[in-house]
Amino acid sequence: MALVVPDYDLAIAFFVDVLGFELAEDSPSLTNDGRPKRWVVVRPPGAETGILLAQADGERQTAAVGNQVAGRVGFFLRVDDFDAAYERMTAAGVEFVTVPRTEPYGRVAVFLDLAGNRWDLLGPAGVA
């Protein structure tokens, strides 16, 4: 999956330093028309699948930054310890747009990434 971001380094800092993802790859690359870009992939620790961070290139892509799924939650971060992740992310300045709640599938709270995309932080059901 590709996530259009405003800036490679800001996105790496958010995903690695704030969310705790691993930087799986950061390699020089070229656009289809030969301009320099980077191939940047982040992933949750131990995960095999990652997210390609694609810096916006041009007006159309810049317009999609933060609105890739039309304002809906489109991304999901599942954690083993919901409360610890929520506290760590809040302390790091992550903006949560809902308070944590318990649903039949577990604990959940919606947060915004650095560009404004909505994510669910998901954890196992526990004491609310």
From TrEMBL:
InterPro entries with a match to the protein in the record: Glyas_Bleomycin-R_OHBP_Dase (IPR029068), Glyas_Fos-R_dOase_dom (IPR004360), VOC_core (IPR037523)
UniProt keywords, alphabetically: Dioxygenase, Oxidoreductase
Keyword hit for Oxidoreductase: yes
The VOC domain, residue ranges: 1-124
Keyword Membrane: no
GO molecular function: dioxygenase activity
Name assigned to this protein: Extradiol dioxygenase
Source species: Sphaerisporangium melleum
